[in-house]
Amino acid sequence: MKFRKMAALFAACGALAACGGGSGSLPTGNDPGNPTTNPDGSVDLPGNPVDPGGVKPDPKAEYTSLWPLTQGSTWTYRITDPVNGVFNKTVTVLGQETVPDTQMTAVKVHSKQDRTATTGTVYEENSWQMELTNGLVVRLREEDITDGLRTRATTWSPAMMKSLATSPASVPWEHRDAVRELITYDAGGTEGKDPTYVWKVLAKDVTVTTPAGTFTNAIKVQRDKLNKSGEVKEEKQRLYWLVPGVGKVREEGERTEELSSFDVKKP
Fold it and tell me: What span is annotated as the signal peptide, if there is one (predicted)?
């Protein structure tokens, strides 16, 4: 069920919080897309936002979020990419701010991939993310930046699922995410798409080893991108390992990401 929230509500209770390379090339399709932001400045959501001003957790209690969005948290990943080689990605939670071109607030997350040793470029991404009370984490907007210049901005209606903040009560668990996507290119032009993803939690308490250590309590998540026939697109399946209180520790798909270090702040 989709919930439309008024801009004034989100200005008062915006909620808490990355991925591949971007391109500044102009769209090749014929669909210029439609606005993803409502006339009142709100963005449709697949649930209700967590109230950042709500009940504060016990500081002595264990932090169990699968996708921490606490300001100042950082993660470094070693990426092995068949095209761009091996390089590092650093992800930093910057904190809540107004999402550009809306009247809503969300958590801004910045990621940086230094590919200078392999491709000679530095790719960055800004992502505005929000945790919902149903356990989902969604993204409202993302911006791709190459060598310091923004190349495009992508928005969705409703906001697109990014990950999970809480583990489902039982597995297997499945969620279908169908959205309207609008890509706005800084070089000029827009492009509309209608992607559909299916998210599945395959298992709990999975053991996974990364350069940052061995984790024995991960949940294994699968994300499939579907074609128009409802079948999984070739090479468009991703696997994620999420650990309570840590976040993503491993990702497999078009490339492999492995957690090498992290510093997660408690709420």
Answer: 1-17
The 3-class SS string of 67-81 reads CCCCCCCEEEEEEEE
pLDDT tens sequence across 39-84: 999 999 999 999 876 666 677 678 999 999 999 999 999 999 999 9
Q: What is the DSSP string of 165-214?
A: SS--SSSSEEEEEE-EEEEEETTS-EEEE--EEEEEEEEEEEEEEETTEE
Q: What are phi and psi of 104, to 5 degrees?
A: -110, 155
CB atoms within 10 A of CB 56: 8
Q: How many Å apart are CA 159 and CA 19, to the nearest integer?
A: 17
Residue 63's SS3 state is coil
Distance of alpha carbon 133 from alpha carbon 200, whole angstroms: 18
**3-class SS at 45?**
strand
Q: How far out from the chain centre does Cα 104 lie?
A: 17
pLDDT digits (tens, 9 = 90+) for 127-143: 999 999 999 999 999 99
Q: Name the CA radius of gyration of the chain, rounded.
A: 18
> Can you give the pLDDT at residue 194?
95
11: helix, strand or coil: helix
pLDDT per residue as tens digits for the range 248-261: 999 999 999 999 99
| CA distance linking residue 93 with residue 168, whole number of Å | 24
